[in-house]
Task: structure prediction
Amino acid sequence: MFLNKQNILNVSISRAKDYLFILMPDDKTENINKLQKVKEIETLIKASNEYSETHTNLVEGIIFGQGNYLEENAFSTSHQIVNVYSKPEKRYEVRSEETAIDVQIHEIA
Result:
């Protein structure tokens, strides 16, 4: 996926001006061992001693008012050659493949 592509990571990191916030999966995340580039960045950051770690539940609580907001409101699947959509399953739908990612935001009544 995009998270393991060096050029994507380079562009995202090199655009930071004053601060860099990196949201990363923790070691309990399924298939974390496949994200070698992300783990390399984590190692470099932690070696600098100029970082702080915060769990996503705290960040989501501050931003959305609910500590598990993204888990409850996001659906992730692979990107398909043909996309036909009906009523969304969750507020956010993320579809990815090797060369593309689609994020759809739905208004849920």
